[in-house]
Amino acid sequence: MSSGNAGHYNKFTTTKMSLFDKITASFRHLGKYNLASSGRYERLWRFTIIITTLTTFVPLLFMIVVNYYQDQKSYNTDIHYRINQILDNTKRTLEFIIEERQSVLTMIVRDKSYEELRRGDCLAATLRNLKNSFGGFVDLGLIDSEGNQTSYTGPYELQGKNYRDQSWFHEVSLRGVYVSEVFMGYRKFPHFVITVKADKSDGDFYVLRATIDMELINRQIFALDLEEDTDVFIINREGILQTASKFRGSVLEHSGIKIPPRTMGKIYISESESRGKSETYGYTDIKGSPFYGYACTKLENPIKHWAVRRSELLWILGVTMAVIFIFIVYRSTYMVNRLRASDERHAKALHNMEYTNKMATIGRMAASVAHEINNPLAIINEKAGLLKDIVTHTEEFPRKDKSYTLLTAIENSVERCSNVTHRLLGFSRRMDVHKELIDLEILMKEVVGFLGKEAEHKNIEIAYNFDKTAPAIESDRGQLQQVFLNIINNSIAAIKDNGRIEITVQPETNQTVAVCIKDSGSGISPENLKHIFEPFFSTKGQFGTGLGLSITKEIVEKIGGNIQVESELGKGTNFTIFLPAAGASGS
Amino acid sequence: MDKIRVLLVDDEGELVTTMAERLEYRDIVADSAISGVEALNKVRANPYDVIIIDLKMPGMSGAEVIRTIKKEYPDLPLFLMTGHGFSLDGEEIPPGIVDYLPKPIKIDVLVEKIQGVLKKRTKDHKI
Fold first, then answer.
1. Which H/E stretch holds residue B78?
2. Which residues contact A38 (CB under 8 A, 6 or more apart)?
3. Domain locations in chain B as residue ranges
4. Which of A78, A191, A316, B30 has the most Cβ atoms closer than 10 angstroms to its Cβ?
5. Rounded CA Rg of chain B
6. What pTM did the predictor assign?
7. B4-125 is classed in which CATH architecture?
8. Secondary structure class of A382 (helix, strand, coil)
9. Which ipTM score applies to this complex?
10. From A375, A379, A426, residue closest to B85, measured CB to CB
11. Which residue of B lies nearest to A392 if distances are taken between CA atoms?
């Protein structure tokens, strides 16, 4: 096909589509088929989408849920481990600190006699040594069995104070060693005391009492280098804070924690949930003291972390699933459309074959009938002709004029009959493509002649307009006849009564002939106009196969042409068929 | 000038005899044959100017007769009569056919065509 022609044909055959157009078109295409009759495809479409979606999403979701819980589990394990580590460290350190100080005090009372210690300078020297060697010691006091502080060294004026009625004094006198809870005492800063009981040589006893700065313990906790969300502190059994807590108050305030009895040196770790926040906590007793180490991680950060991750995950998941779903819908639509198109092609091919077979059968029958009639018709023609010759050549033939008229009438009737048989033969010929030079005027008049009676009944005027400069075309006579027959038949069907069909043949380019068949019929709505060349589309209801125009288009394209239609409701329809001229490239 | 001699060949005897009679009215000597064999015999026995023959005949077919005549008398013009309408689509057109005439044939058209082909031939011969 030449470039000039190509451009011309493109105008009618291809429109450029963007990918988006194609996608939306395919959806629209599906939408178009959302008819009851296409329920099978719609079901298949839905089924494909559901199955694909399920098989895609179920494992995905399952994996995500499992992953989520595993992640959370490992996170919890991680936290438990951290708490355990902190408590273990705290426990060991504090136990060591307390035991160490207790031991040194025991050593002092064994090493020195009551009398020696009672000397102020000796006690002061001892405190100095303790401060230098161990740290944390604030003061030392020596208390006799009556509870009188007989000697004291330290920053306060506590000499002569009596402790007889204080519970710790009873405790130490009974048990020999006593570690107190934290208290403010006279000095208004948190401290605790370690007291050891020693026997005097006279059988009486005395008590060495050392005050330990709580700062020593605080430093140990501080040294743990805790994260912001982790709180480690010391409480007593009643839950009174022995060191300051980040979240539960300062020293000697109630922490709100109740330590269950019997901890037996073990570390207990558990989770609690309060006000929507979960907390991992653990506690353990500090051997040889009334202290309990307590550590907790308010899972504030982790919760936030999880919340962020969860919403992030949900977003990603949502977007991914949406994308997958769109893809699934697109693929399913595409596949079902393909399937449907293939089914339709198949059905169309089948119909086409049936149609062609039917036409071929009818054609063969018509041909043999026409042929069989032509022979006797020829005899009648010759007999009548001979009789006419005799009448003409006999001078005195009786009723010569009358006979002549009668014979002419017979000849005319024979001619009418032969017109019919010849037309039948013309139509029945040859179903396979056989190209020959065609005079469109003769061909068109043959076709119209075939449909003439129907047009006459409806009082339809058929006007011809043949441009003699139109190039000759080379094509298949039978196929072209079928094309024009289909279109003119439609035109006649579109006209109710008293209409007009205009047939124009004119050159379009020097390589194309345009055959225009214009009727004044009812026209086609723009909605239907889009579909008229689709197979099985019919506006004639049960009277049409919906194949006429689709086959017409197919034939036109097969013989290298193109068909175009314009229509306006109530005004009429205009079919234009572009045919390649004889010798045109691509024809 | 001698009269034109024509041989009409068709298995429909009624047709060819009637046509022959009609041609006689138009100053053409017409002979008829109703089979291929008869036609060949007559062609060999008589000098015809034109042969008009149907394709479909029982026994020896028209096409065979045409081939034989063309072999023996290559210059003899042959017209084809046919009951198959205007064209010969779907049927083998034997070579050497001058023209074909769809049945029923209009006698005046036939005469015109015979005269036409003979006139052309004499013209060619003169050249």
1. strand B78-82
2. A340
3. 4-125
4. B30
5. 14
6. 0.44
7. 3-Layer(aba) Sandwich (3.40)
8. helix
9. 0.88
10. A426
11. B25
Q: Are A278 and A307 in contact (CB under 8 A)?
A: no
- Local structure of B87: helix, strand or coil: coil
Q: Which of residues 286-305 of A touch B (CB under 8 A)?
A: none
Q: Which DSSP letter does residue A190 get?
A: -
Cα A515 from chain centre: 51
What one-character DSSP code corresponds to residue A254? B
Q: Touching check for A339 and chain B: CB below 8 Å?
A: no
β-sheet bridge partners, residue B82: B102
Q: Which of A9, A154, A5 is nearest to A576 (CA)?
A: A9
The whole-number mean pLDDT for each consecutive block of 10 residues of chain A, a chain of 587 residues, reads 39 44 51 52 89 90 85 81 89 91 91 85 89 88 89 82 85 88 78 89 88 86 78 88 86 84 78 73 88 80 57 84 92 89 84 74 78 89 93 89 93 87 66 70 81 80 85 80 84 85 87 89 83 70 61 79 87 89 60
Interchain CB distance below 8 Å, B89 and A393: no
pLDDT tens digits for range A262-318: 667 788 888 877 666 678 888 998 888 889 999 888 765 455 556 566 777 788 888
Distance from B34 to chain A by nearest Cα, in Å?
A: 14
What's the pLDDT score for residue A34? 42
Q: Which residues of A touch B88 (CB under 8 A)?
A: none
Residue A36, CA distances (Å) to A31, A33, A40, A345 in order: 12, 8, 9, 20
Cβ contact (<8 Å) for B104 and A374? yes
